[in-house]
Amino acid sequence: MSAVLPKSAKVVVIGGGVAGCSVAYHLAKYGWKDTILLERDQLTSGTTWHAAGLVGQLGASATITRLRKYSLNLYKELEKKTGLSTGLKQNGAITVASTPERLQELLRQATAAQLFDVNVESVNKQRIKELYPVINDDDILGGVYMPEDGQADPIGVTNVLAKAAKMEGAQIFEKTPVEKILVKDKKIVGVQTKFGKIDCEYVVIATGMWSRQIGEDIGVSIPLYPNEHFYIITEPLDKLPKNLPVLRDYNSCLYLKEDAGKMLVGIFEPNAKPAFKDKGVVPLDFSFGEFPDDFDHFEPYLEKSFQRLPMLETAGIRKFFSGPESFTPDTQYLLGETPEVNNLFTCCGFNSIGIASSGGAGRVTAEWMINGYMNEDLFSLDIKRFQKFHSSKKFIMERVTETLGDLYGMHWPYKQHNTSRNQRLLPYHEELKKEGACFGVSGEYERPMWYAKSNEKAEYKYSFDYQNWYPSVEFETKNTITNVGLFELSPFSKYEIKGENAHSELQRICTANIKNEIGRSTYTQMLNEGGGIETDLTVICIDKNHFRIISSAATRTHDKAHILKHLSPNLEFKDITDDLVCLGIFGPKSRNLISKISNDDFSNETFKFGYGKFVTLGSKKIWAQRLSYVGELGFELYIENKDAKEIYQLIIEEGKNHNLSHCGSHAMDTMRMESGFLHWGHDISPEENQYEAGLNFAISYKKETNFIGKESLLKIKDQKLNRRFIILSLKDSKPGTPLLLHEEPIYLEDKIIGRTTSGNYSFNYKKNLSFGYVSSIHSNEELSKMNLYIEVAKQKLPALVEIAPLKDKRARLL
After folding, report:
1. For the chain, which domains are there?
2. Which residues form the Aminomethyltransferase C-terminal domain (predicted)?
3. CA dist., res. 252 & res. 95, Å (int)
4. Are 282 and 324 in contact (CB under 8 A)?
5. What average pLDDT does the segment 196-213 reach?
6. Are 348 and 301 in contact, with CB atoms under 8 Å apart?
7. Residue 3 — very low, low, confident or very high, per pLDDT cuts 50/70/90?
8. pLDDT tens by residue, 501-530
């Protein structure tokens, strides 16, 4: 290090790879000039230097597609700004499909990409041969072509970002390892380096494969771990055409890139090899590091490359490469503020697609830091989607053997991971299993998704069309509305707040007027300062100065972090998610059933909708509340773990007299859509406000407290909505034809006016349902008389507007 290290800064970015340089550039560009980037060795020395340099825009999700498109445009822009070369070559990219299911997946991705004006063409076999004349297309059914995609030099991209960051005022120091991140009262105060301390307000961990252990040193969970990643570079090939598009063959786990007359052949294979397996730690001095050859591991995929590109069979190998690439539990990035330490952000976990992703990831990280929130739907990338256990070595080292393969594996709807399962079992897990439960992961829990019927195997058969669990859901949903269903709700996040100021604090962080009466519940949202929806939850007054919050299972860490960030420290806060199981008894016979196993009064006169109270079931005291996410009469029962199995068995035994059925999460999700209930993370997020989502009934301007986000809401309160929530169904509604999911374009005639957010088939109403948002000058009533379409896998399907939810809300009020 030649320059003198500053004593203080606004931000310290740790890590001089492509991601760290992107964050530093965007922070400085957006006004935080006092930004320092520290690199322990040289820029790119971690994993950036050996990246294949593919710059593709099409991602497995719409969010990733949006960030990748930004990255491509940024790199072109900064080449001009800096005068340096990124080595960007927009020679296009082709992804081929050799099975009908893969072609369906690609066409769905291409359809979603239209929402962001990404140029994607669906191509047939003949067109693929024209674009890639040396390919063996015998088994190819079709594919997609991205003419503006291509490749870049990873070191060139990083240097361009680094120079642009310096031009904006950021400082970069190489050969300056950070020895410790300094934290006081759960907030960043600085970093300790080899050359001294730097006081700072913010730190960004952009340290790639080292991030998990850096976080672990200060009690922060960063769930990623490196695998060994393999590719070869051939000798020059005489007959290899120049400027071939990048070729991806997911079914063969291959990517192929022509570069200066040579071919790079890389793989993303199932059953990957964790790196540094013996010690489970990445050495701090692993700069520009490689692993020994493992040709036996690579050879089966090399043979597949011969089949796809026959000319490779006689090619010499100039370089066999094996090096580390870090992966996360779900192959999505790790962005955002950590829940454990305020002002500590992450920008890592790029799962081998860091070059294509880092431009966009750096932008949103900088905006997140400067604004203090995001008004984009980034929960799928937010580090707070994970819990503490996800970063344990036992969990993460096993999971990444699967997730590297997921990158090129089929992205099936409702797909469940096979590794690192059974983290937390319910007290009556074996009983549910005997009932035919097919389990999925919900937070840390194994939770029934559906129950197999007629001695069928409780196992998913994945498809983009008809689902093998549809007969189960048909039975479960129909039985719930005619008799009674038992739903497993234990993974729901549960928090308790106690203290003299508990009510006033909840009034400040919630939009609704929180009922301060024992037994009363309030449905509400919490917002960020920009008015975006950060949480969707129910608050129940358990006792004087004692409230319980219930929210989604998937948002446990996220919601807890949001609440604690805005809650006064003098209140008692406790996460009780794992202390109580929760069973839902829903349906017209639910009152009769529960009345048979309790001496308490469950009549409508004494136990109204939206109320809760302590009751006795058998000999056990539990908390019951009359709420229902499935839109039917029913009760949520909160039971201590030690009593859970006994009460479960009590319900099952009496349930035989009321035609009770076990019901899974798919049935609940279907029924909540029939009732018009929104789901945070799909239908609502920080990207939406309550007016757009039709949730303005959960806003109270009359309460004395100025709740967070109120000023932003008041600015839009009387304005015409730019976009709004809508419920659609297909004119030709059949189960799974097609399978409606989310991120499907909504058309008015031939113009895209919105996108879908949720989809399900309702057997109760025989309709293929979709939730979404549209931007239109026409009201929903007017749209109902126009030609609307939902596009799925490049097929436009006529759709109808549902003016109101299918289910009458009176069903749950009886």
Report:
1. 8-327 (3.50.50.60), 492-576+689-719 (3.30.70.1400)
2. 723-805
3. 11
4. yes
5. 98
6. no
7. low
8. 999 999 999 999 999 999 999 999 999 999
Preceding amide of 686 cis, omega within 30? no
Peptide bond into 738 cis (omega under 30): yes
- Alpha helix locations (H) across 178-267? 211-217
| 796: β partners | 791
pLDDT of residue 810: 79
Residue ranges of alpha helices (H) inside 525-570 are 556-566
Of 44, 39, 51, the closest CA to residue 13 belongs to 39
Q: Which residues contact 785 (CB under 8 A, 6 or more apart)?
A: none
Decide if 53 contacts 152 (C-beta within 8 A): yes
CA distance 658 to 279: 56
Round to whole Å and give the CA distance between 619 and 616: 6
Q: Place 2 in a pLDDT band, splitting at 50, 70 and 90.
A: very low
Residue 346 near residue 377 (C-beta atoms within 8 A): no
Cα-flanking dihedrals φ and ψ of residue 177, to 5°?
Answer: -70, 140
**Whose structure tokens read 């490749």?**
151
- Give the bridge partners for 660, in sequence order: 484
Q: How far apart are CA 664 and CA 650, in angstroms?
A: 19
Is-contact 618 597, C-beta < 8 A?
yes
Q: Which uninterrupted H or E stretch holds 783?
A: helix 780-783
CA separation, residue 685 to residues 164, 434, 590, 699 (Å) = 33, 37, 33, 16
Helix intervals (H) in 89-124: 100-113
Confirm if 628 and 417 have CB atoms less than 8 A apart. Answer: no
pLDDT over 60 at 1, yes or no: no
